[in-house]
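question for whoever is on the cluster today: can someone run the full assembly for these? two chains, 628 residues total. i dont have access anymore since they changed the login thing
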Amino acid sequence: MTPVIQTEALSKKYRRHLALDDCTITVPAGRIIGLVGPNGAGKSTLLGLVCGMITPTSGSIKVLGHQPADSAEQLARVGFVAQDAPIYTRLSVADHLKLGARMNPKWDAELAERRIRQRGLDLKQKAGSLSGGQRAQLALTLAAAKRGDLLVLDEPVAALDPLARRGFMRDLLDFVDELKVSVILSSHLLGDLEQVADHLIVLANSRVQISGDVSDLLAIHYRLTGSSADTHLLPDGAELIHTEQTRGETSMIVRSPEPVPGGTAVDLEDMTLAYLTRATNPGASISSALMTGAIR
Amino acid sequence: MIWLTWRQFRAQTLAAGGALVLLALYLVYLGNEIRAFYDSRIANCAADACFIARLDLRAEYGDAVLGVGAALIAVPALIGIFWGAPLVTRELEERTDRLAWNQSVTRTRWLAVKLTVIGLASAVLTGLFSLLLTWSASRYDQVIGERFAALSFDSRNIVPIGYGLFAFVLGTVVGMIVRRTIPAMAITLAVFATLQLLVPTMVRQNLMPPVTKTVTVDSSVMNRGVGLNLKQDNTFEIRGYTVPGGWPLEEASPLYKPDGSPYTGDDAKPCLANAGDLADGFACTAAQNLHFEYTYQPANRYWSFQWIELALYVGITALLAGFGFFWLRRRV
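^ ran it for u. tokens below:
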């Protein structure tokens, strides 16, 4: 089966600023892909490259087996909701649905109208006067009713309050089940993605820190604490990702293809934080609690 | 795509249509006034009355005709500023480019439809305006006859269509490159205004090689309101000679004697001696068999110039549009 996204040494440079550096990833189809990383890590750049809004400086990218945005057919395969869910403020909700119907051959009018009705949006309302949540719903509806094979959502919940975030994500899960699409969505908060993502890409400093199916990632990461936290005991091929001191106790996060003696399972958050900490603050050891607070 | 273009452009179209209707009402009124004036005072007029009627016609309607002409020249600039420049920049500024260019329509198609629909609207607007003014001022133009004058040439017949198309595409492409509305508007205006100044003053006259003919100063020439002007170096030049409906390219031409040497102050003395009588002086000068070189564009080239200029503007517009397609795909 064609991978949803396949990149090879993909880079994007803006003048002197490197927004994405040497990104090589392969994402299989049928996943909900979480793209996490601090602000400015290159998430929007990667998503822009995926939907063809941005052209790479070097390297290659194939989305669903094709160059992004190189034809109307390819554009029809990928639905994109950009950051802040852009909509035409002067057009009404109904105008937006009409726009979608006129500009997308595979438009699913029934789905679009049902969603708009369920979310309680008024068809006659000007899109500029919608609330943040309604706006996000309108933009998502437009992207989804295209009936593409991949939905790209850039920070879809950033503008929403915590309650609306949870609702949006739960709704997205049902929706994805119904549509049978792959989804890639980004957030600077792992918490937003944790419950929905089954594939994770961690971006920091314009580089991919780690990527893979969540279950695979969790299976090769271990936490070592106390006396077992001794690098000499690590098996061959193991890599120390991050060490931290918590109340006098040493704790390490280790990646290893082989089981690590004394190692316990890590959760997604600890693993992600280990990579983010290593990337943004090499050599430093910060307590997990502090780090979580900083990122949250 | 056509629907979206229309939906986004609806308010502007209605505003422009409304303005055009008001203008049409005024121009029909003005045209009828000028026609009435022409029928009562100029058609079948006698020599002196004709002269005065012409002066009256200019005094009465000159400002109105020039004013509307100037407005017609301003319309393409407005099109460039308000239709062209924001076409891409507003999408970028409101970030709706991310919405527009992620429907199942390529950017090339998006731009092609936008340029075609709004370009057509620009051409229709300037074309109708020009048609109305050309009709309205036709009697005036016929009597006053300065068809090649910059303000008149630029605001009659078919060239305004070229300006309208060009200004719109210019605004669009500048917007793509500059990416911000206000600077794009300013640059569009500056470029278009510069071109509208340069083309009539420096470019247009060279579009076809001018005709130079040798004119003998006989009594008919002397009676056409020419002036002989003695220059610092004691030679004469002749001013104010015109060929009906033609476009003089020089204000003054040096006068020569039959042997080809310059006509000097000394040569003119015999004729100035009996300067008491104007007609005698004219006859004396005419008898000296003087000549001068006159460079001009003949009247019958008017339509060639209109077509050449329209073709030039349409050609530049096509090149600009081609560049716009390239730029929108690669750089925006």
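summary bc i know u wont read the tokens: Chain B has a mean pLDDT of 90. Chain B touches chain A at residues 1, 3-4, 7-8, 94-99, 101-107, 109, 330 (CB under 8 Å).
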